Amino acid sequence: MPLLQTKPHPDGLLQVLDMGCGTSALGPCIYRHSPLPVRVTCADISPIAVRIMQEHVQTKAIQPHNLSSWLEFVELDCTQLHKHYGCSSVDLIVVTPRSIV
Ligand SMILES: C[S@@+](CC[C@H](N)C(=O)[O-])C[C@H]1O[C@@H](n2cnc3c(N)ncnc32)[C@H](O)[C@@H]1O
């Protein structure tokens, strides 16, 4: 992804949102492989999906390519993004309709 090779956000982290992440590996893959520091937020309205992903990542102990990167899973209705982000913006929103983990 070309954006992930560009200059980071002023706070030093590229803000990435995986919207409706379900149990997709996309967000964790970006976190794991991005050479630049990223804050990857995997958001889903389903508390079950969020819990499964939190447990999965803890079990796998995924390490980021860049040690400054962050990965988080949040229960969030993506029509209500302001509740999580307030006035701040994101650099990249990814959405996959369905993927295979
Ligand atoms: C077809 S699944 C795709 C999941 C994942 N992106 C993938 O590629 O496997 C759609 C996901 O969107 C979530 N979703 C539906 N409406 C949502 C909303 N308003 N806010 C956040 N997530 C939502 C569902 O809970 C579900 O996990």
**Which percent range describes the beta-strand content?**
15-25%
Strand order of the largest sheet: 3-2-1-4
> Domains counted in the coordinates: how many?
1
Report how far apart the termini are: 20 Å
Bound molecules: S-adenosylmethionine
Mean of pLDDT: 89
Domain Methyltransferase: 16-95
Protein name: Methyltransferase domain-containing protein
Organism: Zoarces viviparus
What would your notes on this structure say?
It is a single chain. The protein is of the alpha/beta class and 101 residues long. The protein has one domain: Rossmann fold (3-Layer(aba) Sandwich). Helices cover 26% and strands 22% of the residues. It has three helices and four strands, in the order βαβαβαβ. A four-stranded parallel β-sheet has the order 3-2-1-4. This is Methyltransferase domain-containing protein.
Features of this protein?
101 residues, alpha/beta, Rossmann fold, four-stranded parallel sheet, 4 strands, globular, binds S-adenosylmethionine, SAM-dependent_MTases_sf, Methyltransferase domain-containing protein
Q: How would you summarize this macromolecular structure in one to three sentences?
A:
The chain is an alpha/beta fold and 101 residues long. 26% of the residues lie in helices and 22% in strands.
Layout of strands and helices, then pairs:
Elements: E1 14-19, H1 26-33, E2 38-44, H2 47-60, E3 70-75, H3 82-85, E4 92-94
Parallel strand pairs: 1-2, 1-4, 2-3
S-adenosylmethionine binds at residues 20-22, 24, 43-46, 49, 77-79, 96-99.
